[in-house]
Each structure stands twice: as structure tokens, then as C-alpha cells.
Design brief:
The complex is a heterodimer. By secondary structure, chain A is mostly helical. Chain A is 70% helix and 0% strand. Chain B has a single domain, classed as Up-down Bundle (Cytochrome C Oxidase, Chain A), CATH 1.20.210. In chain B, strand 2 and strand 3 form a beta hairpin. The two termini of chain B are 30 Å apart. The chains are: A mainly alpha, B mainly alpha. The interface between A and B is large, with 57 and 82 residues.
């Protein structure tokens, strides 16, 4: 977990420096704010990972001498197939399209997206397919 | 071409079958990263061909002075959609949606992407966005015609009214969300789903580059999405964010857009750097030279690329010239490290020139040329002279064509056997490469000269008195060669699919984990994984007697890998002595 944390923290530190440099050289607000946001994008998850990496045992994938047996067991639960991403995608596209061709497509879109959200939750609970 | 270790005889006590729907329903409902990766690859190649056809129309128009093949308005639509399709719908999604989706979990030894349903949603948003963008051509006013950068105030409701530009805006927002979800997915997969022993510094360079690309997507795309929502507000609810009349700042659009746009250029380049690195290592039969240097170079390029956005805005007079010029020059350093390492990887290797290797070496040459002219453009005095001329057009086409097409086709030919279990036709592939390599120079070198002679971008016609005709004709001839080359590759892909030549699991004697499983891989990818003790576990396993070079991570090499482990899968693997000894592996 440490390398992951360092990569993200390095991003945060780099953009912290660039952000300060840019502000004092240019006093330009939009670029400075975006650099500040980028710094936070590195620091927030990076410090969280760093905090965890000091409190947990190294995972098998962090151990250069790990045996394959160390990773035996259930990796994670993966849905085999699901219709809901498709429904949600069509719903989202309909909602987006309503900004162009009129708000009636949004109603269709919200129904589809709502159905998809309910469907995904239900599917996650019972672990079914399609 | 030697085939590595024969496929292990699988004696599965229970093995995971896919119990899903089949046919069209399978394609719609699948959350398997391999199916989604294939859908992404095919869709993005279709968009690539459409955008290529638009380029052919553009080049044909420019092959004669005062041409009337298409009118000014349609010409504007064509170059806008050519750029948008290539950048938003081909080069990025082909890399992080197509190849990365398929390959990254395999190279990590993972059963799937971290969030399979989010992955499927990414694809549907991408397809929806793509169709909406293309659908702009069906509207009364035609498709968007303000260039792929949509500069304010050209993109406001007065200068470019109509539904076509609005559909473009909506489509970019949708594909932006799709890219963000894919970025999250790739980062989570690399962070959490690696196989035991596969430390970060043993990941193949392609996966490293995709991780960095994923983080870069998370930096860049939200800015674009925010900017484009504000653009819509300006067009429809009078928010005046980018209009002077309402107290807004038009150049703010350029700041926001290029804060996305320049990282985007590297989102389009880094994956292809990764592909080329893997291909060069495989066909040189050597480990990657300077592995850690490669990783740090990738991270530095990504970091620097986010601090150079205003070098696209030198002529606006609002950019901090010394800062952005210096930062842009600095990118040449890690890129130089990469070139040094690529050459080092090939140095004294046992090189063979199969089609993927040809494309990878071609990439080195063409990308170097495009990159060097980029360094020229980083100099403000020179940029002032050639800004918005064909010099810039030639530069970014050399860079983007070099990475996305040369690098992309290297990846396509390299992984086609893994995608399909079939070999591509070498003769067609090599013919395609040579047409592309020649066509590339004939197309883009004259454009540099045209730029230096003062030909501006985005003009639909020019008079014969300008003297630009000969160079334009030459460029158009080159473009037709490129068309022929891409057509040959598409024919190759189809022929190889419909008249299959079985590839086996590891046709290239490659080094990384994706080749350890069958081609195409089974549901959830692996029945068995070789022990991972370096960044090329499969090579170590297949060549236990090979004298190992230093592999960049300082661990002593092991001879004859021990197969230990307990699991539900039992395999029989012929040992180095040739006798079959029964061993077990995990079914991760």
C-alpha cells in the first residue's frame, strides 16, 4: 500500500509547489484554483492510503516474496452480468439529450435511471444475474 | 517463432463457467471486462474510420485551389467532427476503454475490473455520447462547426446557433463522465486487485502507464465537464461566463479547456508509450531497460503535462510566457529518458520484426519527429510566428498519429491473438505498416512547409496565387496512402477473424501475465498464475535456464520455479526435465 500512497502524495506535493509558484508569478485565479484542486486530488486519497499503509499488514501483492497460496480464497464478488448499466446509460443519455431537444426526454430518462438504481441495489443484495 | 510452454493440462475439479445470456443480450448485459473491452475497441475503431473518411474529404478539398467539393460551412463541420471523433471518441477510448480494459486486469492477474458494472456503464455512456455527437449531422443546421476546442465566443449561441453544437456539448459531457468512471476503475484495479507477489514495481509498464493515465483522467476530465456545463448555460440561460457583454471572460474558456486539453494530449500518448514499451521488450526478448526510470519518467511527464496548459494560449497575451515555456521544455527531459530506455531495451536484444514490432519501431521514429517540433513550438517567439498555421497542424498530427495510430496498431496487432485466439496475417500487416510509414511522411512533412509559407489552419479554400498547391497535392497523396494502409489493417482484422489461424496462448513468447492464460481468456481470466518474482514472471517460468539479466528490482533470480499452493485447480505441468510432475496452483 505504501507505493500507492507515495505516488498520490508525490502528485499532491508537486502540484502544491507548482500552485504556489504559479500564483506568485502570475496572480491568475483560474489556473491557480485548478492547480489547488489537483493538489488536493493527490493529497486527500494519498494521505488516506498513507494512514492505512502504516496500520495494516502488507498485503500479498505488496510482498515481493509472496507465494501464490497467500492470495488464495475469494478475491471479491463480481456480478456475472447485469442489464442495469445499459438501462442507466440509456437513461443518462436521455437526460442529457433533453438539454438539446426538449425536456420531455428527461422524463423517460429519469424513469430509466431510477429503475436502474433500484435494480442495481436489488441485484447487489440478492447477487443475481440479468 | 517458438511457442513457449505448452498449455498445461487442466484437471479442474470445479471450474467457473459463465452462466449468462448469449447473443445480443450477452453483449448488452455483460459486465466482463473482456466483452466490454472488445465492444470499446470495435466502437472506437468505427469512429476512427468515420473520422478518417472525414479527413479524406478535407484533404481532397485542399488538393485543388478554390475547390468546391464541400462548401465552407460543411468544411467547418468536417474538421470539427474529425478532431472531436479522433480525440474524444477514438484515441482516448481506444486506449483506456479498449486495450486497457482488456489487458490491465490480465496484466495484474485480476479476475475482472474492480467495478464491473461501472465499467459497463462507462461503455454505454461512451456509446451514447458518440452517437449523439455523430447525430449532430442529422440536425437542420448541421453538426458542430467551432473546431474541437470550441473557443468562446465562437461557440456562443449567436455565432454558432442550432442543435448540432448543443449535441456536441452534451456528447462531450457524457463521454467525459465515461472517461472519469474508467479512470476510477483502472486506478482501483491496479491498487487493489494485483496477484500475490506482484508489487507495484513489478507491474508491466503498460499497466503503470494506464494507472498514471487513469489519475490524469481524474485531474483533467472534471474540468472539461464543468467548463462545458458552463458553456451550455451561456448558450441557453444567459449566464455570461464567457461573454464580455455580461461581465464574463472569454479567455477563461481557453484556460479551462486547455487545463483539460493538455493533460488530454498525454492521456492519448501515455497508454501508447506503455504499449510500445511492452512490445519492444517482447520482441527484443529482453527485460525493459531502466524499468524504474521508465516509471518515474511516466509520472514526471504526467505531472508536467498538467502545468503547461497555457502554452496553447501564448498569442492571447494573457499567458505567463516564461513559466509555461520552461515547463514545456522540461517535458523533453523525461521523454528523452523514455527514448533512451526504449533504445536500451532493443540494444543487443534478439530482435525480430513481426508486425507489432514494426509499428513500435515506426512509432519511435515518427513520435520523435513530432516531439522535436513540439519543443520548437514551446519557444514563444517561434510560436507567435507559426501559431494557427499548418506547422502546428503537422506537429500535433505527427504526435497524435504517431502515438494513437502507430502505437495503437502495435497494440492491436500485439494483443489481437489474446483478444481472439487467432493470429493476424503477417503479410497484410507488414504491407499496411509500410504504406502507413511512407504515407505518414508524405502527408505531414509538406504541412510543416505549408505552415512556414503561411498557410493558416481551417481554411476551406485558397487561391492558386499563394503557391501552396504542390505541397497540398503531395499531402493529399500521402493521406490516400494512409487510407490504403488503414483499409489493409481493417481487412487484415476481418480476414484473421473469419479464416482463423489458431494462435495458442503465448504466440510471441511474451513476458507478462496476460499471456499466461488461454487466448481468449476464460471467464474470470486465470486458472493458474506463474510465480511472480520479477516484472516478467512468464518469461522466468518459461525460460528457467535463461541467464537472467538484472531485472531492475534487485531480487536474486530463482532457478526452476517452485509450484506450490493449494486450490481447487490441479494442473499437470511438464517440468524442465520433461517429465510431468503434478503440481497445484491457485485459481486467482
Amino acid at each position: 500500500m505504501k507505493v500507492e500512497a507515495y505516488v498520490l502524495l508525490a502528485i499532491g506535493v508537486f502540484f502544491g509547489i507548482v500552485c504556489a509558484l504559479y500564483w506568485f508569478l502570475s496572480y491568475e485565479t483560474s489556473g491557480t484554483l485548478m492547480l489547488l484542486g489537483t493538489m488536493l486530488l493527490g493529497l486527500c486519497p494519498g494521505s488516506y492510503y498513507f494512514w492505512w499503509s502504516r496500520r495494516m499488514k502488507p498485503r500479498p501483492e505488496d510482498n515481493p516474496n509472496a507465494e501464490r497460496a497467500d492470495g488464495a480464497g475469494v478475491v471479491a464478488t463480481f456480478p456475472s452480468s447485469s442489464i442495469w448499466p445499459f438501462v442507466l446509460g440509456v437513461g443518462a443519455a436521455s437526460i442529457a439529450l433533453s438539454l438539446v431537444i426538449g425536456f420531455w426526454t428527461a422524463s423517460v430518462g429519469f424513469v430509466l435511471a431510477g429503475a436502474a438504481v433500484l435494480g442495481v441495489v436489488r441485484e447487489s443484495r440478492r447477487g443475481g444475474a440479468v | 517463432m517458438t511457442l513457449a510452454a505448452d498449455r498445461a493440462l487442466l484437471l479442474t475439479e470445479h471450474h467457473e463457467e459463465e452462466h449468462g445470456p448469449s447473443g445480443v443480450l450477452k453483449w448488452i448485459t455483460s459486465t466482463d471486462h473482456k466483452v466490454i473491452g472488445k465492444s470499446y475497441t470495435i466502437t472506437s475503431l468505427v469512429f476512427f474510420c468515420l473520422a478518417g473518411l472525414m479527413a479524406m474529404v478535407i484533404r481532397t478539398q485542399l488538393a485543388s485551389p478554390d475547390a468546391t467539393l464541400v462548401n465552407q460551412h460543411l468544411y467547418n463541420e468536417l474538421f470539427t467532427m474529425h478532431g472531436s471523433l479522433m480525440l474524444y471518441l477514438f484515441a482516448g477510448p481506444f486506449a483506456f476503454g479498449g486495450l486497457a480494459n482488456f489487458i490491465v486486469p490480465l496484466q495484474c492477474g485480476a479476475p475482472d475490473m474492480a467495478f464491473p458494472r461501472l465499467n459497463a456503464l462507462s461503455y454505454w455512456l461512451y456509446l451514447g455520447g458518440g452517437l449523439i455527437m455523430i447525430g449532430g449531422f442529422l440536425t437542420v443546421g448541421g453538426a458542430a462547426d467551432f473546431g474541437w476546442v470550441a473557443y468562446a465566443p465562437l461557440s456562443n449561441a449567436v455565432n454558432t446557433p442550432g442543435a448540432g453544437p448543443d449535441m456536441w456539448i452534451v456528447a462531450v459531457a457524457l463521454t467525459g463522465f465515461s472517461a472519469i468512471f474508467t479512470g476510477v476503475n483502472i486506478a482501483a484495479t491496479v491498487f487493489y486487485l494485483r496477484a500475490p507477489g506482484l508489487t507495484m514495481f513489478r507491474l508491466p509498464i503498460f499497466t503503470w502507464n494506464m494507472l498514471v493515465t487513469g489519475i490524469l483522467i481524474l485531474i483533467a476530465f472534471p474540468v472539461l465537464t464543468a467548463a462545458i456545463v458552463m458553456l451550455w448555460c451561456d448558450r441557453h440561460i444567459g449566464s455570461h461566463i464567457y461573454t464580455v457583454s455580461g461581465g464574463g471572460v472569454p479567455v477563461l474558456w481557453q484556460n479551462l479547456f486547455w487545463f483539460f486539453g493538455h493533460p488530454e494530449v498525454y492521456i492519448l500518448a501515455l497508454p501508447y508509450f506503455g504499449i510500445v514499451t511492452d512490445v519492444l521488450a517482447t520482441f527484443s526478448r529482453k527485460p525493459v531497460f531502466g524499468y524504474r526510470g521508465m516509471v518515474f519518467a511516466t509520472i514526471s511527464i504526467a505531472a508536467l503535462s498538467t502545468s503547461v496548459w497555457a502554452h496553447h494560449m501564448f498569442t492571447t497575451g494573457t499567458a505567463l510566457l516564461p513559466f509555461f515555456s520552461l515547463m514545456t521544455y522540461l517535458i523533453a527531459v523525461p521523454t528523452g529518458v523514455k527514448f533512451f530506455n526504449w533504445i536500451g531495451t532493443m540494444w543487443r536484444g534478439s530482435i525480430t520484426f513481426e508486425t507489432p514490432m514494426l509499428y513500435a519501431v515506426g512509432f519511435l521514429i515518427v513520435f520523435l519527429f513530432g516531439g522535436v517540433t513540439g519543443i520548437l513550438l514551446a519557444s514563444p517567439p517561434l510560436d507567435f510566428a507559426v501559431h494557427d498555421t499548418y506547422f502546428v497542424v503537422a506537429h500535433f498530427h505527427e504526435v497524435l498519429f504517431g502515438s494513437a495510430v502507430f502505437g495503437g496498431f502495435a497494440g492491436l496487432y500485439y494483443w489481437y491473438p489474446k483478444f481472439t485466439g487467432r493470429m493476424t496475417r503477417e503479410a497484410l500487416g507488414k504491407a499496411s505498416f509500410w504504406f502507413m510509414f511512407v504515407g505518414f511522411w508524405v502527408t505531414f512533412l509538406p504541412q510543416y512547409l505549408l505552415g512556414l509559407h503561411g498557410m493558416p489552419r481551417r481554411i476551406a479554400e485558397y487561391s492558386a496565387a499563394t503557391g501552396w498547391l504542390t505541397l497540398n497535392r503531395l499531402s493529399t497523396a500521402g493521406a490516400y496512402l494512409l487510407f490504403l494502409s488503414v483499409a489493409l489493417t481493417m481487412v487484415n482484422l476481418l480476414v484473421s477473424w473469419f479464416k482463423p489461424v489458431a494462435s495458442g496462448d503465448n504466440p510471441w513468447d511474451a513476458q507478462t501475465l496476460e499471456w499466461a492464460t488461454s487466448s481468449p481468456p476464460p471467464h474470470h481470466n486465470f486458472f493458474w498464475i506463474p510465480p511472480i518474482r520479477s516484472e516478467r514472471p512468464l518469461w522466468d517460468y518459461n525460460h528457467p535456464d535463461h541467464t537472467k539479466l538484472h531485472q531492475g528490482n534487485g531480487h536474486a533470480p530463482e532457478r526452476a520455479p517452485a509450484l506450490v499452493g493449494s486450490s481447487s485447480v490441479r494442473i499437470i505441468q511438464p517440468g524442465p526435465g520433461g517429465s510431468g510432475d503434478e503440481t497445484g496452483g491457485t485459481d486467482r
